[in-house]
Amino acid sequence: MFLHETADAEHFELVIVQSVRQILNSPNPIEFLEWAREAIPRLLGLREAYLDEVESQRLAMLLGTVIWNATPLPTNDFLPLPIASPPPEAPCLCGSGQRYGDCCGNLDEMPELSSELIWEILLDEIPERTLRDALALDAIPGPLLAKIADRWLDDDRPIRAVALLEPLFAGPLDELDTPYEPAFDILCDAYDRLDHWRKKLAFLNRVCAEGSRSLQAIAWQRLSTMHIDEGDFVQAEAAFLSALRSNPDNPSTALLEITLLAAQHKDLVARERSRFWLHRFRRLGFKDEVFMEFLKRAIADPQEAMVNSHADALDPLLVDLRDWVAGIGVRPLPAYGTALLRETSRHRPVDPFALLEGPAEDIRRRPGSRLSAGATNAPAGDRAVGPDSRAELRPPAAVRRIESVWRSLYPAAKPHSTHLTLVEGVDAWAEPAWLDYLLDHPEMADSLDVLDDLATALYEHPESSLPWISHALLRPLLERAWSILEQTLPPEGARCIPWSSATNRPALRLLFRRYLSQIQEGEPKGAIDTLETLLRLNPQDNHGARAELMNLYLRDGEDERALALARRFPDDLLADLAYGEVLALYRLGREERARLVLNTAIRRLPRIPGYLTRKRIKQPRLNPLGMTPGGDDQAWLYREEMRDVWLAEPGILAWLKRVTA
After folding, report:
1. Closest of 11, 15, 92, 6 to residue 52, by C-alpha
2. Does pLDDT of 348 surpass 70?
3. Domain end call among 300, 316, 332
4. Which residues contact 654 (CB under 8 A, 6 or more apart)?
5. 58 in the same domain as 154
6. Which of 247-251, 311-315, 581-585 has the lowest mean pLDDT?
7. I want to staple 545 with a disulfide (CB 3.0 to 4.6 A). Which of 221, 418, 531, 635 is the partner?
8. pLDDT tens for residues 278-295?
9. pLDDT at 8
């Protein structure tokens, strides 16, 4: 038939929708066919297709009959009621004036239309009461229950969605193939909405074990995504590989791999895999699909591609902030200055372990932190700082003016002490008027104080835990702060900006956040540079940068630099410094000196050797507010962070065991 030549898919869908509405409005076949002869040629544009009147009505009659015969009728228990073919000698229904046998009855077998296609339209047209009747009669095709459940989920009725879809998966799962994937996804989403994580996990494990290959693939994808959210990349990769084995040509599995790599900031590998998948899918015949565009973007920048792919689901406030952040990189750097601090501020006592007195959330966001709460000795490194080098940052006059406006708009105060998060109960995003002002004023990016508040606000936003969001939003703020400080306080300069001056705290907090971001993104070399700068600018080291820096040195084989750092902070109660010096000396072949330093370390922190040398040891109770110098909690945390480095040095644990026996 020449329908393909005269009507495109959009017009054809319009014909079906209008036909179904007509049938629901008047379920009479004769009336419907009369309507079809008049309406279908117009809807399809057949009169503009150079068809004569007879041909146009003949096609409309045939198409109308096909649609009627496929339509489930609410008045017939949602079963179709096909139109019986007239006798050959009867007048043809198309109105040609010929006998049916010589006209439409003389055509090849009439094409059929799937009732499932009609059901998709019916579900959008029938009222709720009629829908309940159809569900009671079990008349709706199983795969299309997903459409109803999705509507209920949008209406915040997840319990109804679960009750509708669970029976669909109660029987043998290997019989449910690709058409059931939407129902699977919506059931999992409904479990999430209800916080039924145990039930969801049991369902996923059952599908992975018993489902068809297509369902197994998407179940493994779900599990992999869950592990990515938890930061368990080993389990995430195992689940991804299972998804790949179940369905190697599934575009969703390809996108999952790029997501997994981007989450670990393995951008070079992500680019190569994107290139591989793009080539593969082109060979399979894919062209303009959305995922193909994603792969093209991921070849250029995987992190940016991830942000773009999630833009529709992101908090609109983050999307707006992203646009603002994208424009600040071209702004010239502001000219900050410094002013010497008065002598009185030089002796102000500052607890170098204050960070660990904060909530567990701060510590959780600090990979590798093992500082000890309750310690009171100030690091010796600060005592070498003379009064002529201690300064406070001075923003230019224009920046001071915009900071004054900002303070009147931004609803949250600074984090307490060296904490990274706000006081519990404070939500900077609950009153986003500050964001409206920010979007209109790119000059706000000239203020370290504003950049600090924005970084804190991003830490508080739940969606910023996604690594690509952090990369796209937080990292540019931190890099701008780094550039301002590099310009203001270059390495060859003699001045420092101690934490004791409140004016300096936004800058120092931004530096520490930059270190955390670099560790998260797999940039240990850059992290070392940031920590060294932080120690140079704030030698008293309120953030515990010395512990982080010591462990990075040791992991990088920089034993001499590790020793130099230890000498800057003698008698330190941080296990990282005390025992890091021992490890560095041993690796340099200075065993006798290592023994002497170890004896001193044992007197101060006696539990560390036992936790390092034992293959297995029970985790002690950890205090969420910090840890005790010399306590089991400190020893456990140091073991968790650095035992792999000790194990990598041949003979050192046996030596440690002999010396401490």
Report:
1. 6
2. no
3. 316
4. none
5. no
6. 311-315
7. 531
8. 999 999 999 888 999 999
9. 63
Cβ neighbours of residue 336 closer than 8 Å, sequence gap 6 or more: 393, 394, 395, 396, 399, 448, 484, 487, 488
> What pLDDT digit, counting tens, does each position of 190-209 carry?
999 999 999 999 999 999 99
Which 3 state secondary structure label does DSSP give 260? helix
Query: Exposed e or buried b for every residue in 159-170, given b needs 16+ CB within 10 A?
Result: eebbebbeebbe
C-alpha of 96 from chain center: 63
Mark whether 95 and 175 lie in a shared domain: no
Q: Does 48 lie in the same domain as 7?
A: yes
Write out the two tokens for 160: 């109804």
Counting Cα atoms < 13 Å in the Cβ hemisphere of 465 gives 11
The residue written with tokens 């003979």 in the block is: 651
Could you say which of 316, 336, 361 is where a domain stops?
Answer: 316
The total number of structural domains in the chain stands at 2
Here the CATH number for the domain that contains residue 274 is: 1.25.40.10
Q: What pLDDT, on the 0 to 100 scale, is given for residue 355? A: 38
> What pLDDT sits at residue 485?
97
Secondary structure element (H or E) that encloses residue 339, with its range = strand 337-340
**Same domain, yes or no: 175 and 302:** yes
- Residue 75 covered by a domain: yes
Can you give the three-state secondary structure of 423-461, one letter per residue? CCCCCCCCCCHHHHHHHCCHHHHHCHHHHHHHHHHHHHC
Look at residue 296 in the predicted model and tell me its pLDDT: 95
Residue 95, SS3?
Answer: coil
d(CA 148, CA 160): 10
> Does any domain span residue 634?
no
145 and 53 in one domain? no
Query: What does the pLDDT average to over 370-375?
Result: 35
572 or 210: which carries more pLDDT confidence?
210
Q: CA 449: distance to chain centroid?
A: 27
* Distance of alpha carbon 47 from alpha carbon 57, whole angstroms: 10
Diameter over CA atoms, the chain: 115
| Residues 159 and 257 placed together within one structural domain of the fold | yes
Instruction: With respect to residue 579, please indicate whether it lies within any of the assigned structural domains.
Output: no
Same domain, 31 and 159: no
Beta-carbon contacts of 417 under 8 Å, excluding residues fewer than 6 positions away, are 354, 355, 357, 358
Over the stretch 148-182, which tens digit does the pLDDT of each residue have? 999 999 999 999 999 999 999 999 999 999 999 99
* CB atoms near residue 148 (< 10 Å): 20
pLDDT in the model for residue 364 = 33
Provide the residue range defining the domain that includes 215: 141-316
337, β-bridge pairs: 394
Question: Under the phi-then-psi rule, with left for phi > 0, alpha for psi from -120 to 50, and beta for the rest, what region is 522?
Answer: left
**Position 198 in a domain:** yes
161 and 48 in a single domain? The answer is: no
